[in-house]
Amino acid sequence: MQTMDTVEGKEPRLPDLFCWTDDGFRLKSAKCNDCGSYFFPGYHPQHRPGCKRENVEDVLLSPKGKLDTYTIQHYMCPPPFKTDHEIAPYGIGLVEFPEGIRIAGIIMETDLDSLELGMEMEVFDYPLYKDEDGNDVVTWAFRSVK
Amino acid sequence: MRDVYIIGTGEHPWGKFKDRNFVQLGEVAVAQALKDASTDWKDIGAIMSSILIYGGNAGHLSGQYIESMFGETGVPVVNVYNACATGSAAMRMAYNSIAAGETDTTLAIGVDFSPEGFLGAKSDDPRQDRDVIRWRMTGMPNPTYWALECRKRFEKYGDTPEDLADIKVLLSQFGVKNPNARYQKLFTKEGVLNSPMVCDPLRLFEICATSDGAAAVILTADPEKIKAAKNPVKIEATTMGSAIYGDPTIRISAVSAPAKAEAPMLSESYSASQQAYKKSGIGPEDVDVLELPDNSSWHYLQYLETCGFCGEGEAHKMLREGQTQVGGKVVVNPSGGFSSFGEAIGAQAIWQVVECSDQLRGRAGERQVPNCKVAMAQTYGLMGNSGTTIMTI
Ligand SMILES: [Zn+2]
């Protein structure tokens, strides 16, 4: 699978957390083949005690997972969070990926009243704001699978 | 190891003090503790102090600043930071120093001046500070983490918004009786349920504020000082815990958590409390007063389970049956809790010990719990940080 850290018109707000592939947008994780743990961010290892810590490989998480829990935030998160859009109230969810790790992220493009634990969610790139060059500065976000 | 007693405590009232500085708050708490302990400053053999992270050099060396005000004596001064469990670390070091025979009488001091509003990221390097990721990418202030867990409790155990509101009401009933509390206001259930929704299901009045405050404790193993003290409090255990691999809690500052639980929730607090039970031979069933970290109403419920005061999913039952009130199994937060005081990061763990000690010594005024013989102070700090202190009279 071909992976790209940026695509035309889009810049990650922070590097090394996600990428674009020919099969869509994906979160970057790392897996320890000694103890079976997945890490996110991939550069923050959290091994099982006693692990040899020798066989860690970069992996991409599945594009879809299940909503483990969520909250609806009724105010804008203060800086350094930043977006040009009036998003409040907005959802924040914890999505469980089949690999065995749950990831937190904002929930966009979803009717907040329809949120239910266990529902299927997909990860996508959400444009927070534009930089000086007119690129969308993006983070990862979740939306319900139609 | 020698037995260690608390012979004096001091507390500066909690609030926001724009016209004062943190050292002045600390001075008040220490002076009160010295007087209460009938102890001369020159008898203090070591100072274990909390770090005030927002206070620059002075805050990072707060023990030295406080020492200089009372007079420099050359004793060991250690400054420690363990997030909201900072005071637990100071207590534990003071206890261990005395129990091991290094010093006879030691001061544990916690002072904090909180910045206005949210406690934001303190660096800009995501590779070494996950805090940067959560602030920039997911927009998650601390209460968001609690709301995520709270929603799950609702689904799993059937806790309700009314339970969360009832907790605030109960705590305010204690808070109005505590002259040191920042908020001495009685809340009604309707008032709480009508307060603005912050992060569903947590409302504004169900989340604690950030405050300024100071608390000091003088510990000793000196037989003469113990004999001379009025109602000395014995420290049965003072422990600290960190998180355990496989803890399913989405921990503040993290943006991920394991899918499969292989450890209890809030495993750092589970660990600290279990260590304290083991060391003291005292169990939750023996505890008369529990000061737990009610950063939000969710914490109140969760901590009853984490520390073994009831089984998993049973906390709301304890609450509804009145088991956390006077006359129940254990009186929870008769101080009024963080709900009435607000958080003062470096000071709150020592403040909890002071409140427990006042209950044990029978000098808690209008909020005195009758016949209090065993008290427990339980803290919670971010990134896997917790402390437990069990005291008896
Ligand atoms: Zn490993």
Question: Could you list some keywords that capture this structure?
Answer:
heterodimer, A: 146 residues, mainly beta, five-stranded antiparallel sheet, five-stranded mixed beta barrel, 0% helix, globular, B: 393 residues, alpha/beta, Peroxisomal Thiolase, Chain A, domain 1, 2 domains, ten-stranded mixed sheet, two-stranded antiparallel sheet, 14 helices, 36% helix, binds zinc ion
Describe the structure.
The complex is a heterodimer of chains A (146) and B (393). Chain A is mostly beta strands and 146 residues long. Chain A has one domain. Chain A has no helices and eleven strands. In chain A, strands 1, 3, 4, 5 and 6 form a five-stranded antiparallel beta sheet that branches. The mean pLDDT of chain A is 97. With 393 residues, chain B is α/β, with parallel strands linked by helices. Chain B folds into two domains: 5-117 and 212-233, Thiolase/Chalcone synthase (Peroxisomal Thiolase, Chain A, domain 1), CATH 3.40.47.10; 130-207 and 235-392, Thiolase/Chalcone synthase (Peroxisomal Thiolase, Chain A, domain 1, 3-Layer(aba) Sandwich). Chain B contains 14 helices and 13 strands. Chain B has helices at 22-36, 56-60, 62-70, 86-99, 130-138, 142-157, 161-175, 189-193, 223-228, 267-280, 297-306, 315-320, 337-341, 348-360, and strands at residues 5-15, 46-50, 77-80, 105-112, 197-200, 202-203, 212-220, 233-241, 256-258, 289-291, 331-332, 374-378, 386-392. In chain B, the strands form two sheets. Chain B has a ten-stranded mixed beta sheet with strand order 3-2-4-7-1-8-13-12-10-11, sandwiched between helices. A two-stranded antiparallel sheet of chain B has the order 5-6. In chain B, helix 4 packs across helix 14. Chain B is globular, with a radius of gyration of 20 Å. The interface between A and B is large, with 43 and 42 residues. The complex binds zinc ion.
